[in-house]
Amino acid sequence: MAAPREIELKLAGDPRVLQAALKSPMLTPWVVKLDRARTLDNRYFDSPDLRLAQNGVALRIRRLSPRRYLQTLKAAAIDEGPFTRGEWEMPIPEPVLDLDRFTDPNARARLALIRPDVLTERFATVFKRKTIQLADPQGGGTIEMALDLGTLRATRADGTAAEEPIAEIELELTSGSARILFGLAEQLAAEAGLTIAIANKAERGHRLATGEPPSPQKAIKSPIAAGMTVEQALEHFARHGYAQWLANQPVVEDGRDPEGAHQMRVALRRLRSALTLFRSVIPKPQLDRFKADMAWLAAALGVARDWDVFVHDIVEPAGAGIADGDAVAALVACADAHRQAGYRAAQAVLGDPRYTRLVLAMGDWIEGRRWREQPYSPEAAMLEHPVTEFADRALTRRYRQVRKRGHGFRTLDTDGRHEVRIALKKLRYAADFFRPLYPKKKTAAFIRHLQDLQTDLGYLNDVATASRIVTELTRENRSDDGIALATTAGQVIGWHHHGLATAEPKVCKDWETFAASPPFWSVTKAKKTTG
Fold it and tell me: What CATH number has the domain bearing residue 305?
């Protein structure tokens, strides 16, 4: 039995702007009914160890009137995207949880995580909701649009009260295609200057109750499986990359955990890599549009990451060997100021209209399977072919690029090895994507050798980036303090260059080991090169 689903988008902004958006002339052809405004009082429950929240489950009781209550269970639907959740709700006679009323096997599977007797109230929301029922003038479906203005409240373990405002527009698809949902959201956001909100009220409430920052989301294992078509594999990669990207948005917005920006950037790189892998079956204008916008976003996130690496992987390891500890501390403090500025810039980018357009356009592309919008061609027909054949060709193409760029590896300069590193990274993403299709033992050995070489060349790139950062520090500050900082930074870079020279034999050996490793896929059509 399929779980009941809700597909819902949230747009955030100043309350006055949100109220004005509800009256936008753009909505006039859509309006079917204006519902009476009402106040909603909700209490959310979980165990002391937050077992439901940790598994993407929310359990609440909503007070509709003095004698009417609604019990609701919501659960994340990871395989269906970040805006889709399973939802089960039913009336109850009093404000007391009755989990036996959830009879759907999917709902009961979520509740098997927990014993009813350990559930306690964790936080509450009280807000006024204005609702408009909308229908696509073109007949594409219906949407419920709600403006929620109110407060989220929690009492923390130390007894202190915490609260934060609720100000958002919810757009929930009630029938038809998700494409109309994303399309309307994009128009409304552009007109009113609204931003996409990812965290729902339950997620925000649990964070408010604990006082802890949201957790960074790493990539999950490849969702691909033998027997899939090329289109199914493309959709899976796109959904999971998109979900990881957006799961890290609240972490970046919160700002306390720098890993959020890094993992969002990783998700973007993986998603861009996946789109490039499937470029033969994606219309070029679509691919070009997404790659340009995603590169813009990744670049904005990358500034802070470069300073992170500079502090933790460059300055700190070398600093122990520099006699003047105060000089090293001053360099770290200077770098940390740049790093914090980088994170503030990354947070600002999430409020840029271009970011909201990108998120909604990507969601629309995935939900609407818009890669199908192309004339028939042999390339388009490949969407229906088995993915294994496609994977062999994609892996071979990336493998050949690595071997070509690595030709004469021992004599390559820094720029040449940087090109090898980029090609390796693309091969690594492809190998990770497609590895479930191949024998585990052969796949693991090949990827292990690839990782060793990638680590070697990653360090070389980190040192090159650090050298650029030192040049910037010197150029921006010509004072005595600036010269002192540059001198200390130069010592740090010199320490790492000595390390690179010492490690050179290992780097060359790792290349030779990789080059001699038999690929785990069929390369019968590959043009072999030597390196």
Answer: 1.40.20.10
| Confidence at residue 114, expressed as pLDDT on a 0 to 100 scale | 85
Q: What is the pTM of this model?
A: 0.90
In the prediction, which pLDDT does 4 show? Answer: 67
Residues 300 and 206 in one domain: no
Whether residues 477 and 376 fall in one domain: yes
Q: What number of CA atoms fall less than 13 Å from residue 455's CA on the CB side? A: 11
Helices (H), 435-479: 440-476
Region 508-517 average pLDDT? 96
Answer yes or no: are the C-beta atoms of 64 and 43 closer than 8 Å.
Answer: no
What is residue 483's three-state secondary structure? helix
296 pLDDT above the threshold of 50 = yes
pLDDT of residue 482: 72
User: Does 242 map to a domain?
Assistant: no
- Angle made by CA atoms 467, 471, 473, in degrees to the nearest 5: 115
Give the count of domains, the chain: 2
Together in a domain, 198 and 335? no
Please count the other Cβ atoms lying within 10 Å of the Cβ belonging to residue 516. 8
The residues with which 45 forms a beta bridge, in sequence order, are 59, 121
Is it the case that residue 475 has pLDDT exceeding 80? no
Cα distances (angstroms) measured from residue 297 to each of 195, 266, 290, 341, 484: 15, 12, 11, 16, 34
Q: Which long-range contacts (CB under 8 A, 24 or more apart) does 476-483 make?
A: 481/330
* 33 & 119 share domain: yes
38-73 pLDDT tens trace? 999 999 999 998 999 999 999 999 998 888 999 999
Residue 258: pLDDT band (50, 70, 90) is: confident
Give dist(CA 171, CA 18) in Å, integer: 13
What residues have CB less than 8 Å from 85, skipping those under 6 apart? Answer: 5, 6, 8, 74, 75, 76, 77
Mean pLDDT of the chain: 91
Sign of CA dihedral 179, 185, 190, 191: positive
Q: How far apart are CA 333 and CA 339, in angstroms?
A: 10
End position of a domain, from candidates 193, 212, 231: 212
Please tell me whether residues 322 and 464 are part of one structural domain: yes
Cα separation, 445 vs 448, in Å, equals: 5
Domain end among 192, 212, 232: 212
433 lies in a domain? yes
Do 498 and 422 lie in a common domain?
yes
Distance from the first to the final alpha carbon of the chain: 55
Q: For residue 386, is it within any domain?
A: yes
CATH number at residue 207: 2.40.320.10
Model confidence pLDDT, tens digit, residues 328-358? 898 889 888 888 999 999 999 999 999 999 9
**Bridge partners of residue 58, in order along the sequence:** 74
Q: What is the DSSP letter of 229?
A: B
The answer as to whether 65 is a domain residue is yes
Whether residue 94 contacts residue 62, with contact meaning beta carbons closer than 8 Å, is answered with no
Task: Find the domain containing 478 and state its range.
Answer: 270-516
